[in-house]
Every structure is written in structure tokens, then in C-alpha cells.
Write the C-alpha cells for this entry.
Amino acid sequence: MISPRKTLHFSPPQWVIFGFIIFIIIGTILLALPQASADGESVGFLDALFMAVSAVCVTGLAVLEPGGDFSAFGQVIIMVLVQLGGLGFMVFGVTVAILVGKVMGMKYRLLLQPTTNTFSARGIIRLAMTILLLALSLEAITAIILTIRWSSELGWAEAAYFALFHSVMAFNNAGFTLFDNSMENYIGDPVVNLSLSVLFIVGGLGFMVLVDLFRKRSLRRLSLHSKLVLVTSAILLVGGSFFLFIVGLFNPATEGLSLSERLWSAYFQSATARSAGFNTFDISSMLVASQFFIIVLMFIGASTGGTGGGIKTNTFAILVLATINTFRSGHQVHAFHRKIALETVMRALAVVVSSLAWIIGATLLLTITEDIYNVHFLTTLFDVVSAFSTAGLSMGLTEELSPIGKVIMMITMFVGRLGPLTLAYALTYKQSPSKISYPEDKVLIG
Amino acid sequence: MISPRKTLHFSPPQWVIFGFIIFIIIGTILLALPQASADGESVGFLDALFMAVSAVCVTGLAVLEPGGDFSAFGQVIIMVLVQLGGLGFMVFGVTVAILVGKVMGMKYRLLLQPTTNTFSARGIIRLAMTILLLALSLEAITAIILTIRWSSELGWAEAAYFALFHSVMAFNNAGFTLFDNSMENYIGDPVVNLSLSVLFIVGGLGFMVLVDLFRKRSLRRLSLHSKLVLVTSAILLVGGSFFLFIVGLFNPATEGLSLSERLWSAYFQSATARSAGFNTFDISSMLVASQFFIIVLMFIGASTGGTGGGIKTNTFAILVLATINTFRSGHQVHAFHRKIALETVMRALAVVVSSLAWIIGATLLLTITEDIYNVHFLTTLFDVVSAFSTAGLSMGLTEELSPIGKVIMMITMFVGRLGPLTLAYALTYKQSPSKISYPEDKVLIG
Ligand SMILES: [K+]
Ligand SMILES: [K+]
């Protein structure tokens, strides 16, 4: 006999998936209302669903223009879905998972809390509230700055509305914009460049790193996870800017740009590729070298437990460290004088293998479903990686998707946002505690 | 004081690299001779070097046509280089490494001999001779079959010469042909399809699997390594044929083909992608879906210790098994009732990460060096993966390479043939024995 209580007993990953699906369903219904559409006529079920998935998964890939095709009501719904799927998931999803994990066994604690294992349940909730307040304050401050910046061209009311919308998008690493060319008008604008990028970089660092920074206030005393995330993010940001700047010099499409515009553009595109999704330079006008490079950056993405996607900087760092260790015939993977558990490395491997498998599979399918005779391969690969990494940048495939192509991309965003590990654990969850005990410092994967 | 004996003390991987470089140098000098060229004028240093590297690395990518640009003398040199770099490396390289490994410590034995650890030194040499004889017999038998097949169209003398050349190429998984359109004239020919593919499939299985099959003569008693190689190869061959057959149905370029030609073509292209390099259907006339799929097959490649390239079927199998194990929250990676050592999984990880890194880096470089303004991305990626996996198939980039592009591709072939692990061990070799002992059954990686 199965008791009703038992059948409703979800594991934390199952709760997360359940929550995402509920938000997507409600979002779809609301976005399909005639009131949500700019012309008063429903945008239709499939496109409403696509936009809801893209919003809840904080991707920003769009089959319709948030600015042109939706009413203010529709735009507010998108904004709320993004805030729930990004900041909401970051603060509540992770907190609940940690708390439930404390009750339910080692597994989720290993997965989620390298820096929080000394906290009481009450302490964690207080911390979550602190992060939530911090995030909302950051969004508010940025909104004020952007209101001032845009007041002269848009007027105060519209400037404030645009500022709020894009601040929410930025912190949540969702690439929707109300402009019809993203941020391309502001390629050399320090205010727009800095305010947006600070938000999406902070949002992408993840709950645990923010908690760690908040508590320790000293770089040296940070956890291994935080150190790896911060160092990897910095290297990718600087290295990526440098590469895009150099290649950009050879691009005829950049001819009219000043040196400062080139520098801002290289910085912004390097930062946005790792999951924010805004752009100040048209991606399809870039040279192929830069486009392919951005695919790699998108694939790596932001960091675990944040509003960004990709395999994550921490996963990437573990893969690199494990590879170097094997090449040196070393006996343990280590960084910053800490050993990294083999289980962590195995998770990194599982994440990268399954992510590659999904991207390859989805790309193969789309090369068949989307105009099999006239496929522009790089465009397809770019948009698939963008969807999986919830980056939101596009080379143009997304706006021309067939219905089946939309379904493939929606599932790709969903799988990419939740991560292969979360999905796998949701499907295979058993309540058995781990048989192994780990003395090492832990790094998050996935 | 350093004794002269000490300075000449190479580790096994260093000997392998040294041997490859010597063969390449001698090959380059001979191929650059006016006598090696079809028109009596030297083909030039750089192209001679490229062809020598491609031959010794059993790739088959060609900046010149072996049939049209080289004399019979030049073609025989290519044939000898291929035989040395393929069969020679397979038999002598591996044997020497095992023998030296027995003397020098655990490391190379772990790397090289899952099935040979019960052999005495004399036993290994006898086995190597057996494999050598088996390979030469297979080449000879195939040469006789192809001589008969081609005698009517080429005459007996030329048929015999062509048959020998292509048999040597096939066993060594080197894709050079004397025809100007590879094997496209024989798309539906069972004799050519079967005789060549049996050779390159057997050559690609690797020394250890052949030894194992030769000794055990029973599928069930094979080592874990052999089972993984055989099962993975079979799945890839059948699955690959199926995919290419289905997608081929939608390709207007296949319109004139009969069903049997379609089936042979799907089988042959599926088999050849995993490192042989011949083709019976023009790769550039395929649909993008098939081209991308072939890139994936090339990347996986053949098996460790054979004449093929890629990350290897065994590495691929380990990655898949480790990923599934992690998804299931399993405590050990296993297959066929055998546990797989974590060190093996770590090696697989190092191979796939470094291979991806090399391919991404080389592709990025070539998108810059080869006509930065007009890059056909898929063509570049295809030829880079083909070079790294020593597959030898081309979508056209190779024949149009700039001098710097040729250098990038040559280094890519060299790194791909020797494998990242061999190169890394050559650079970091220390004579310290491993501190860990492994009770599990081993699987080769690299
Ligand atoms: K995004
Ligand atoms: K080959």
C-alpha cells in the first residue's frame, strides 16, 4: 500500500524541477493572454511557451521581441519570471536544497554547500535573506543609475521603466532587452557597460561565493570553491577581452569604432558571453574566429548556484586541474594547497561529457529539422550552445526556428539551466547515505 | 658531472617521439628529391614535409596528390613511411615500450599492457612477430584480391601496384589513394568495400586486442579492454551506418544511387570516419548533418595501440561509463563485472580535455590564418578534427592551406597521432615508481 504522503515525497532536485515547470506553465498562460501582446492579439501558445521557458531559464533567446511584440503587462510578466528563475532559484532553491539536504543526507550537502556547512538552519535562512537584499539593492542602485543615464533620450518615466527592466535582466543573466538591437547603441558608453556588467558578473558568481565573500571579507580565507570561481572568472574575462580585441582589429565591420569603443566592446562581449546575453556589438557581424571563441566562452559559462549557465567556471577549473595532474602523473588533483576529491572530478567529467553529448545531439537534430539543405552550421552550433548555456546571444537561428526546432531549443534551455546532474539526480534519487567520507575541501560541480 | 650514457637515456615515450621525428626527416628528404616528383622537379620542402608527416602519422591528408604529383619512387616512399608509422609503431613501438616498461617500472606497463602482463620478454617478442606476420598476410591477401578486381580496368601490372599500395594504406588507416577521387568509383562495389574496410577495421583495433583475440579465441574470456573496444566499435559502426543512411536519403546528391549503393556507402563512410580516411562518397557533397556526424566519429576514432587515431573507442567508452556511473550516484565505474580504476578514468578525462583544447585552439588559429574574412567554419573544424584524429578525410581546407596553416596542421597530426598522454609523459618522465597499487582490471586510455 502506498501512502499519499509517500507519493508526494519529492527529493530536492525534484522540487526544483517541479517549481520550474509550475513557473513555466503559469508564465505561458499569462504570456498567451491577449493583454500580454503589443497588438492585443495572443502571441500564440508555442511562442508564449518559448518565451516563458527562456525567461524562467534566464536565457534571453527570443522568438518574439520583448520590446516590440509584448505589452507592458507582458514585459512585466517576463521580468517576474526572470526574477523567479534567476534570483529566486539562486536564493530559495539553493537554501531549501541545503536545508533539506541537512535532514536528508550527505548527497545534497556535498552538492551544494562547500561554504555553508558550519551554519545552522536559521543561519542559512538569514544568509539567504542577506543575499536577497543585496541582490535587490544592486538591482535598485543600477536601475537608478540607468534611469539617470537614459532620462535625456527616453524621458524620466520610460527611462525608469527601461532601467528597472534591464537591471533585473542583468542581475539574472537574462539577455532580453526592450531595445531592438540589444545594447548596440551604447557600445562605448561607460555607464551602461559598467553598470550592467557588474550586475551580471556578480549574479553569475553564485550564492556560495557571495556568501563566502560576505562572511570572510578576505580573499585569502575564502573557500577553495570561491577561489577557483573568482580566479577562473578573472582569467576568462581578461583573456577573453584580449582575444576579442585583437581579432576585432581585423574586422572591417569595426572600422568606425574608436579605441575606447573597441576596448569597451571587447570587455563587454567577453563578459556577456559567459551567460548574460546582452550585446553591444552585433554577433553576426563578428569574424568567425570571434564567433567560435564566444561559443567556447558560452560553453564554460558562469558559476554554480548563480544566475548564469554553462558547464560553470568551477567545473572548467576542475577539468583543467585534473588534466594537468594526470599529465604530470600526480597522485591527487589539488589547487591552493587543497586536495580535490575524486568524486568532484568525476562530477566535472559527467557534466562536461553529458553537456557535450546534449549539444552535439541538439545541433545534429537542428541541422536536420531547420532547412536541411541550407544549414549554416556555425549559426546552429552558436544558438544551441547559447541555449544550453542559457547565454541568450544569437547568430540568428532562434528567430527563424521551425515549431519542432523551438521544442528542441526549449528542452535544451531547460536541461542546460537545471544542469545534467540535477536532472539525473531527480530521476535516480535514492535516500541512501553515501558510503564514503571525504576529508578534503570541496568544489561544486554542475 | 653528467655521464654521456645518462644524457642518452630516453624514456619509452621519448624513444617513440624520437623515432617518429627521424622517420619524418628521412621521409621529407626523400620526398623532396626530384626523383620523387611526377614532373622531375622537387615538390619543395614544405609540401614534402607535410606529406611525410601525414604518412608517418598515417593520416592521409594531402597537400599534393599521391597519384598525380609523385613518381612511383615517391609513392613507394609514402608507402614505406605509412607502414613504419602504422604497423611499425603498432608492433615494435608497443613491444619495446612494454619490454622497457617491465624493466623501468609500473608506469608504462599500466599504460600499455592490459593483456600482456603474463608474458615473458621472449613471449612478447614472439607475439609481436605473430601480429606482424598476421598483418603482412592480411595486406598480401587483400592485395591479391584487389589485383584481381582491378586487373580488367588497369591491366595486371598496374592493378597489382594499386592493390598493394591501397592494401598498405588500408591496414595502416592512412587515407592516401592513387585515384584522384579516392574510392568514389567503387561506391557500390562489395569487393573494394569489404576488403579495404576489413583491413582498416582490424588495423584500428590495436595490438592488445589482436593479441587477446589471438590467444583467447573466445569472446567471453577476453580482457575488459578488448571487450570495451569490440563492443564500442561495433555500436559506432552500426549506429553510424544507420545515421548516415537515413540522412543520406534526404541528400539530393545521392539521387542516382541504388539501395545497395546507399547501404554500402553508409557502411563505408561510417567505418572510414573512425580513422581510415578513404571515402566512396564525396564528403563535401554530404548534408551538413552527416558532415558534423562524421566529425564526431573521427573525434572518437579507432582504438589504442592500433593504426587509427582519435581519442579512441576505449577512452570514449570509459567516459560514457564514468558519466553514467556519476549520474546513478554509483560508487565505482564498472563494465562487464569489472571495476575500472579511477586512474583510468582520470586519464580518459585528461585525453578528452586536452584533445578538445587542441582542436579548439587549432581551429581558432586556422580561422584567423586561413582567409580570416571568408572562413567556412565547418570545413575548418572538419579538417582539423581529421588531422588530430589522423582520419585523413577532408572537406577541402587542406588542399588550400597557407604555409602557416600547413605548419599548424602538421603539428596537429603529430600531436594527434602520438596522443596527448604520450607527449606529456615524454616531457615529464621521472623514474619514480607509482605509489598506488591497483587490484582492478585495466583499460587503456590514450
Ligand atoms: K542569459
Ligand atoms: K587515416
About this structure: Chain B touches chain A through 50 residues (CB under 8 Å). Residues 1-7, 104-117, 436-446 of chain B have pLDDT under 50 and may be disordered. Chain B has one domain: 10-428. Residues 160 and 284 of chain B are 30 Å apart (CA to CA).
